[in-house]
Amino acid sequence: MEKERVTGKELKAAFERFSVETSALKDGYSKLQEQFRTVNMRLDIANKKLNAKVLELAKAQEYLNTILTNISQGIIFVCDDGIVTTYNASALAIFGAEDVIDKDFSEVFADDIFGFSMSSYLSRRESMPSSFVQYTCDGAVKDLDIAATYVNAGVGQHAGIIIVVRDITEVRKLRTIANRNDRLHELGEMAASIAHEIRNPLGGIEGFASLLCRDLEDSPGQHKMAKSIVEGSKALNRLVSTVLSYARPTTLEFSKASLKNLIIDIGDLFSADKKFLDRVSFVVDLPNDDIEAYFDIGTMKSAMMNIALNAAQAMPDGGAVTMSLEEADNHAHITVHDNGSGIVDDDLENIFSPFFTTKVEGNGFGLSEAHKTLQAHGGSIEVASVPGDTTFTMKIPLTNATCTRSASWQ
């Protein structure tokens, strides 16, 4: 078969059409490239905005996490389904429970741990009034202030109850100490006023009774009664002097001294006391390294001796008084422990009040003076007691002062 021959004119026309098509494809490709660059630019801008937003959200999340981690209140969030989704470090410190996140509340805590039924309020979706509860963790009883609010769900958010827990144990303790100090101050002022009123007529009674003693030497019976009046007047006068001394401002001379040596001196004095020699032993538990502090040696020795004597008197059938020394929280801790009868709860609140005593003899000023002395040194004294076990803890601040100081205290 004879092939059809292509003329030059036809070939030229074909090349021209090919050139036109190629030019059109080239223009289309250029437009596609331009569109791609535009879309790519827009996508790059969108990605940058998205990355900036993600970074902003991450910073906000980190900021909120920092607040949750460092805030002193415990923060707990329980969703409507009972799952715990927030449990910060303070909540862990208060309750001690670990691995709480993403667990059902009932698996970790009692339903009424916050003073209300968690399941009941979750089902009713209600907030509840503030409550005060006591919680025991590792043997320590904590006073807790609870505030719980129901949070409605927003878009993409969980609904549930947010619980804010504030540990007010130390606040209540400080408030109790402040109230006790105010009460002791008022009592001291009242006692001093009464003592002044008593002292003048008391001096007259003692003077006239002394004259009677002299005039009644020939009447043994009457002389004995007059002598009893003199002795009673002197005893009452000593009590008045004690009251006035308690209420009177006194100057303390602070100097740097060894607490270890002070306790050893008290042990020597105690061991030499014939009243306790046969039935009470004095034991010291001291660290290898000495602990020095700034204090008035005379008043501090008297305060510690009063505490030790009180411990010995609490053991009429004998026992051991143990005095120990350690450093903690930038304070020297001196503890006096006895295994006597203990102090009942009703007496603990008044144990440092003047005139308060559970012993047949004594006027109750020993512990009051010790309390006043520790307070004047910027320290404190605490007592914990159960039957057969009583411990007084004296805390003296350890300062960096390098010179002798003096101060008046009342």
Low-confidence stretches: 400-410
**Head-to-tail CA distance between termini:** 137 Å
Number of domains: 3
Shape: elongated
**N-to-C series of helices and strands:** HEEHHHEEEHHEHEEHEEHHEEE
**β-strand amount:** 15-25%
- CATH A-level architecture of the largest domain: 2-Layer Sandwich
Q: Tell me the name of the CATH class of the largest domain.
A: Alpha Beta
The CATH superfamily of the largest domain is: Histidine kinase-like ATPase, C-terminal domain
Going across the biggest sheet, name each strand in turn: 2-1-5-4-3
Described by strand count, sense and barrel closure, the largest sheet is:
5 strands, antiparallel
Notable traits:
410 residues; alpha+beta; Beta-Lactamase; Helix Hairpins; Heat Shock Protein 90; 3 domains; five-stranded antiparallel beta sheet; five-stranded mixed beta sheet; elongated
What would you say this structure looks like, in words?
By secondary structure, this protein is of the alpha+beta class. 49% of the residues lie in helices and 24% in strands. It folds into 3 domains: 97 residues, 2-Layer Sandwich (Beta-Lactamase), CATH 3.30.450; 81 residues, Helix Hairpins, CATH 1.10.287; 162 residues, Heat Shock Protein 90. The protein has 10 helices and 13 strands. The strands form 3 sheets. It has a 5-stranded antiparallel sheet. A 5-stranded mixed sheet has the order 7-9-10-12-11. The protein is elongated and about 175 Å long.
